[in-house]
Specification:
By secondary structure, the chain is mainly alpha-helical. The chain contains nine helices and no strands. It has one domain. The radius of gyration is 17 Å and the shape is globular. The chain starts with 7 loop residues before the first helix and ends in a 10-residue tail after the last helix.
């Protein structure tokens, strides 16, 4: 079963998102700050508009998360000093996803929380001494993304895969910023992030209304 939306408008938005993503990657490779600023938020914004066409409450929740992510993208790219504001925007995005996933499934699934809690606790323990004034904001953010991945695991494979890719991207950002610069990290960070957002969006727009999986 295809998970790509069949509506021409949705496909056009995906093409626009892909074009903006390629332009942003070119801006990274060529060191063009204005090109990066003009294009970074476009992929998530396109996905938000695409998902907003789904009139379900879950679809609206995912659309809200994507819109907040687009805001976070813009803030993080605009100025390094906006990092905390970008963090807050993405925190709100994760909370929107949690709310959307709870609308799809309220199963407690406590055992599924264990690997994600271990992921977050390990990353936080490794970074704790280097967080400085960001200790509390990062702790809250990590708790939110761990919760988001846990709740995605109760929804289905598409949502789970998207959440894990998003979590991997954020983990790389944390180690690159707070532990030691990772010269190879910028491209994997953005590619993991976009892939995660796309899968989360597709999990909300599947025709059946249920996450159909990755096949």
């Amino acid at each position: 079963m295809s998970v790509l939306p069949a509506r021409p408008r949705a496909r056009a938005l995906l093409l626009l998102a892909a074009a903006a993503a390629l332009a942003f990657l070119a801006g990274m490779a060529l060191d063009r700050p204005l090109l990066r600023l003009a294009t970074k938020a476009v992929p998530a914004a396109c996905l938000a508009v695409m998902v907003a066409g789904d009139e379900s409450r879950r679809g609206r929740g995912v659309a809200a998360g994507l819109g907040l992510s687009a805001l976070g993208d813009f803030l993080l790219e605009a100025r390094p000093s906006f990092f905390l504001y970008g963090l807050i925007a993405f925190l709100a995005a994760h909370l929107a996803y949690v709310a959307a996933f709870l609308l799809a499934s309220r199963r407690p699934a406590p055992l599924r929380a264990i690997p994600f809690a271990a992921w977050g606790a390990t990353a936080f323990a490794l970074l704790r001494d280097e967080l400085g004034g960001f200790l509390l904001p990062v702790a809250v953010y990590m708790a939110a993304i761990v919760t988001m991945m846990w709740r995605a695991s109760a929804v289905g494979p598409l949502a789970l895969a998207g959440a894990v890719l998003f979590g991997a991207s954020d983990t790389l950002i944390a180690f690159d910023r707070f532990h030691a610069p990772l010269p190879w990290a910028p491209f994997p960070i953005i590619l993991l992030y976009w892939a995660g957002q796309l899968l989360i969006a597709l999990s909300a727009t599947a025709r059946s209304g249920r996450d159909p999986g990755l096949a």
